Amino acid sequence: MIGRLAGRLEYRAADHVLIDVRGVGYVVFVSDRTMAALPGTGEAVALYTDLLVREDLLQLFGFTSLVEKEWHRLLMGVQGIGAKASMAILGALGPDGVSRAIALGDWAAVASAKGVGPKTAKKVILELKDKAPTVMAMGAAAPISGSAETGAIEDEPVIEPAAPHTAPASDGAAQSEALSALTNLGYGPSEAASAVAQALGDDPGADTGALIKAALKLLAPKG
């Protein structure tokens, strides 16, 4: 199983790229969102990958984070969702957007992806809603980084520039920490995930503390 590639970006096509890893070229299919995040041709690049194996086909799919890769794996397990539909959903919403949509039961957001109808979108919500808390909790993981020369992890991310040390936590990190705090307070994973997703949707720039406060207000008994 090929789980990660680090090499040099040789060329881009409409839906895939060629990554040269020490003289071996790998064709990797990516979403529109991931394609836009990749560096220029000839530059170092690193991606998490998932290998699709069929009788007459081997295809690699690339992702900038483990959360994105995990959602792809889970989406592919839903009947009616193939690799093309999964990449369309991730391209339209991004991994954090998929987490929020599924946690909130927002099938319309899922259906906004090209080629995904309302019936299939509702099935995605139904089958994956219980998985949302676990995947959201992975959100603190940093974007992948690597070197085209050695394949070693380095301090500077390849896919995205390193954030200043004074910058607040990313949406994924704040989301993960808030979710952990709420579950530690005794809230169920699904209700905690839904509250955090709604709070983050209301204030995308919220840090961990703000997310926890907003989610607690949403979880407070009404009346």
From TrEMBL:
The ranges of region (Domain III) come to 170-223
Question: Any keyword Metal-binding?
Answer: no
Q: Which SMART domains match?
A: HhH1
Ranges for domain Helix-hairpin-helix DNA-binding motif class come to 73-92, 108-127
Q: Where is this region: Domain I?
A: 1-64
InterPro entries per UniProt: DNA_helicase_Holl-junc_RuvA_I (IPR013849), Hlx-hairpin-Hlx_DNA-bd_motif (IPR003583), NA-bd_OB-fold (IPR012340), RuvA (IPR000085), RuvA_2-like (IPR010994), RuvA_C (IPR011114), RuvA_C_sf (IPR036267)
Q: Where in the cell is it found?
A: Cytoplasm
Keyword DNA-binding among record annotations: yes
The biological process GO terms on file are: DNA recombination; DNA repair
Q: Name one GO molecular function term.
A: four-way junction DNA binding
Q: Which UniProt keywords apply?
A: Cytoplasm, DNA damage, DNA recombination, DNA repair, DNA-binding
What's one GO-annotated cellular component? Holliday junction helicase complex
Assembly and interaction partners: Homotetramer. Forms an RuvA(8)-RuvB(12)-Holliday junction (HJ) complex. HJ DNA is sandwiched between 2 RuvA tetramers; dsDNA enters through RuvA and exits via RuvB. An RuvB hexamer assembles on each DNA strand where it exits the tetramer. Each RuvB hexamer is contacted by two RuvA subunits (via domain III) on 2 adjacent RuvB subunits; this complex drives branch migration. In the full resolvosome a probable DNA-RuvA(4)-RuvB(12)-RuvC(2) complex forms which resolves the HJ.
Give the protein's function: The RuvA-RuvB-RuvC complex processes Holliday junction (HJ) DNA during genetic recombination and DNA repair, while the RuvA-RuvB complex plays an important role in the rescue of blocked DNA replication forks via replication fork reversal (RFR). RuvA specifically binds to HJ cruciform DNA, conferring on it an open structure. The RuvB hexamer acts as an ATP-dependent pump, pulling dsDNA into and through the RuvAB complex. HJ branch migration allows RuvC to scan DNA until it finds its consensus sequence, where it cleaves and resolves the cruciform DNA.
Which HAMAP family does the entry link to? DNA_HJ_migration_RuvA
Q: Which family does it belong to?
A: Belongs to the RuvA family.
Record remark on domains: Has three domains with a flexible linker between the domains II and III and assumes an 'L' shape. Domain III is highly mobile and contacts RuvB.
**Record protein name field:** Holliday junction branch migration complex subunit RuvA
The lineage is:
Bacteria, Pseudomonadati, Pseudomonadota, Alphaproteobacteria, Rhodobacterales
